[in-house]
Specification:
mainly alpha; 3 strands; binds acetyl coenzyme *A
Length: 400
């Protein structure tokens, strides 16, 4: 029998930290979270100020380059991104290979990984120009690919990007424009969606960003790394949570069933989706902004009295007062409200995580870039604590 303690004695000391609850895997200058206080900063700027005054593309610039752009840099960046928003025409054939009822995230994992097959002039990770162009391409093409997933699943023709529109307005156009009419973007809804993108742009070493870094640490090309991040984001404990919130609200169905549902949560039969966070032990600052955005969107659309919103508010009220949640410091996270907003914007539930992936792409590429540009970067290689069988000899099948 292997003595675990002897096995690991003499090696350099290492931590056993399942779930990485207290292990930093890297240094980063991009995003800071103060979980106890419920604060979030991108490159030192509070998320509240960026959500109020900035726009998504400007926030992308900030995350990538570390500073807010001046007017010339801002325009140059916007044009630089916009010129990459078309996808290779052969990618449309890639889409046609999927079943129409495929989950859009399964399509996204496939097509984003496949970008490496189409853009071979941006795969050399040791060439800074290749790295930059790959980053611009991914930020620019994600809305196009996301809208294509939606249109394909509905059997609708793809809409080409319109560069006269903003990044977010263009996405809405590609999603919703009918071939026979000029789509007019509602500025309140456009601003709300842009804000959702800002709030989801980065969140330091969450599971998907760590996945991108781990994949990238082997020297894999950036498109493959982002595809890995998308795969990780898909899970219901991470980016799939806003989808799970809407499903949960549908299952509860009515305010009268909230107490019964909460009893099941406390008995640990299931979790209250959209609540709790590994780092925030206070209100998620993005949730506060999202709640306000939710009010604005529902007012604009005349949906303030929607039963789903009322149900969500009833759940929130009970949870914030209940000792089970208070003792465990479980507060609503950004996903509790984002699903309601997205659904009001006409985004189908299955597309929620795709929109999260779209917005988070800039965070992923910023972290990937930061890691690749670090001269001390090493391949990520976590250790394990072996608890399996000790040494034993092989027995032929008739002796087992
Ligand atoms: N509902 C009910 N109980 C919960 C919830 C919840 N949403 N979250 C945590 N708990 C309880 C656990 O049962 C546990 O209780 P115990 O101490 O009696 O065993 C305690 O709170 C701690 O839970 P952990 O699972 O250890 O917390 P962890 O930090 O690992 O999990 C997570 C964080 C995954 C986000 C969790 O809170 C969860 O599953 N939430 C629901 C899914 C969700 O909303 N995810 C979105 C995260 S935000 C994002 O990705 C943008």
């Amino acid at each position: 029998v292997i003595d675990i303690h002897k096995l690991y004695a003499g090696t350099n000391m290492f931590m056993f930290d399942p779930g990485f609850t207290s292990t930093a895997s890297c240094e980063s200058k991009i995003t800071f979270i103060d979980g106890e206080k419920g604060q979030l900063y991108y490159r030192g700027y509070p998320i509240e100020q960026l959500a109020e005054y900035s726009d998504y593309l400007e926030t992308c610039y900030l995350l990538i380059y570390g500073e807010l752009p001046d007017a010339v840099e801002k325009q140059k960046f916007e044009l630089g991104v916009l010129r990459h928003n078309m996808v290779h025409e052969q990618l449309t054939w890639f889409f046609r290979g999927f079943r129409r009822d495929a989950h859009p995230m399964s399509m996204m994992v496939g097509v984003v990984g496949a970008l490496a097959a189409f853009y071979q002039d941006s795969l050399d990770i040791n060439n800074p120009d290749h790295r930059r162009i790959a980053e611009y391409r991914m930020i620019a093409k994600m809305p196009t690919l996301a809208a294509m997933c939606y249109r394909y699943s509905k059997g609708l023709p793809f809409n080409y990007p319109r560069n006269s529109l903003s990044y977010t307005g263009n996405f809405m156009h590609m999603m919703f424009a009918k071939p026979t009419e000029d789509y007019v973007v509602n500025p309140v809804l456009e601003r709300a969606l842009d804000r959702i993108f800002i709030l989801h742009a980065d969140h330091e070493q969450n599971a998907s960003t760590s996945t991108v870094r781990l994949a990238g640490s082997s020297g894999a090309n950036p498109f493959a790394c982002i595809a890995a991040g998308i795969a990780c984001l898909w899970g219901p404990a991470h980016g799939g949570a806003n989808e799970a919130v809407l499903k949960m609200l549908d299952e509860i169905g009515d305010v009268s069933r909230v107490e019964e549902f909460m009893q099941g949560v406390k008995e640990k039969r299931y979790r209250l989706m959209g609540f709790g966070h590994r780092v925030y032990k206070n209100m998620d600052p993005r949730a506060k902004i999202m709640k306000q955005t939710c009010d604005e969107v529902l007012n604009e659309l005349g949906l303030q009295d929607s039963p789903k919103f009322k149900l969500a508010m009833a759940l929130e009220k009970i949870a914030l007062e209940d000792s089970y949640f208070v003792e465990r410091k479980l507060y609503p996270n950004v996903d509790f409200y984002s699903g309601i907003v997205l659904s009001a914007l006409g985004i189908p539930v299955a597309m929620f995580t795709v929109l999260f992936a779209l917005a988070r792409t800039v965070g992923w590429v910023s972290h990937w870039h930061e890691m690749i540009a670090d001269p001390n970067q090493k391949i990520g290689r976590p250790r394990q604590l072996y608890t399996g069988s000790g040494r034993r000899d092989y027995l032929s099948v008739d002796k087992r």
